[in-house]
Amino acid sequence: MNFLSQYWQLIKPFWLSKQRLPSLGLLLVIISMTFGSVWLSVQFNQWNGDFYNALQQLDGSSIYRLLGQFVLLIGSLILVAVYSSYLQKKLLIDWRTWMTEQLTAQWLSDQHHHYHMKLAQTEPDNPDQRIAEDIYLLIDLSLDLLLSFLRSVLTLGSFVTILWNLSGEMSFNLAGQEWHIPGYMVWMCIAYTLVGTAITHWIGKPLQRLNFNQQKREADFRAALIERRENSEMIGAQRGEAIEREALGTKFTFVAQNWYKLMVKERNLGFFTVGYAQVSSLAPIFFALPQFLAGIIQLGGLMQIKMAFMQVSGSLSWFIYSYRDLAKLSATVERLTTFNLKLHDIELPSTAKHPIAPKALRATLRVHVDHERSLLEVNNLVVEQGQIVMLKGRSGLGKSSLLRTLSGFWPNFIGEYQRTDSIWVPQKLYLTTTSLKALVCYPQSANNIDDQTCIDALQQVGLNALTTSLDSVETWSSKLSGGEQQRLMFARLLVNKPPLILLDETTSSLDQSAATLMIKTLKHALPNSAVLMVSHQPELWAMADRLIDLDNQSPVALGA
Ligand SMILES: Nc1ncnc2c1ncn2[C@@H]1O[C@H](COP(=O)(O)OP(=O)(O)OP(=O)(O)O)[C@@H](O)[C@H]1O
Hints:
- With 560 residues, the protein is α/β, with parallel strands linked by helices.
- The protein contains 19 helices and 13 strands.
- Mean pLDDT is 90; it is low at 555-560.
- It binds adenosine-5'-triphosphate (ATP).
């Protein structure tokens, strides 16, 4: 029950959305095709009876007429089978596009859910896998299982009557009493399938947990590989390959260990399901043999009974044949539900109030790591429009945590702050593989900004050599030096012109003259922006309107 309600919560948003209408139409067409294929199977059953009877009676003209019908029936079956699979794929991609957009928007939301989840350490493992793979699995398995279930129900409805009518009545003597069982083949079929289902469930029960673990371990292994690839320079520089191979080997051992367990359970289930499928084709002949030997039914009747029995038993065995997929679906639903719950459970900080101009930032607060460890305190920290205030202090004091707090990301603080809209440049920079122009304009779209504005910004920060590469798509994070990447951040600020700029040692890789040039450029190009900057570079301190020594918690007045 829990599974069904979780499953409904996952699929409900799409099927209640406005975009559902074309998909609903598509689903109805696919279901109609499923109906059509069952109807064709019923016709095929009738054909089987007529054909074998004509064979037994050596009726040449009927045999040729029936062969013509066969071509028509098979042609229609092929057409329905191919098109229903084609349309199913179309429905899958429409539904997947919608769900992927929704989940990505919730994760990468404007309220920064992705980052808050990480900071609060509530991020579930491998969100990338949940978005890329689990959504696909959820939809693919749902459609397959729904259609196979509908086909089973329809087939059951169509063939159970046929089987009932064909099987006649079974009479036997037991304990001195005469017994009559009407439609006895139907009862045999039900009993046969129920036993099969019970055994399948008993063997296959551990599959759901094992599938869940397999998906997680595969994703962990993939994430570990990506991490190595991203840090290949550091690994190479420190000759770390051997230890990295060992770490990856351990991760892969987890994959293989679970795989072996899964293999064993699937093998045991396979022994049963494959054997069951084979026996199912002979069982009806065995059950109907007494009637055939007694001359009550002909060869055509026996063949029809065999086919009808297999159809009824196949439909009743839906659970047996779908067991693996159901186990996979259940694991997928659990993973996506956890992801959704974690996204909704995040406590978002309230947005900061704006201070009264000309103040761009005002803060009196104490930052903590957690309940037990407090970091630093600022008392009436004020930065006005056009001012540059610098922060200095020993490593590990909490300067980055302070900027994180003022940006609205760090929830562990006591006190209050007000600020205008801001851009914070953390120590670790992020440059995706995209065009240089897109990096300069980020977070704005490159389409909204003309080339000349970007060229001017690049020239102002001393990246003249790059002005001809605006449209080049490169892995800029490995192509640019650390200092060039920091210059690029200043070019980005010049283009975006935020009212408040929070800089965390953004000049640390630059030499003295380049670092001072960046600050001068910022001051000159954005005279109305306020800047709060953490810096360990004494040569810059003289450029600040105020320097705050956080070790002593005292403001040191400098400049104007
Ligand atoms: N996300 C986090 N979770 C737990 N502790 C953290 C987190 N971020 C920082 N800390 C802890 O807070 C303390 C202060 O870190 P922070 O990076 O703010 O110092 P800093 O003054 O900027 O140091 P540095 O000058 O070396 O950059 C450190 O001991 C660090 O371990």
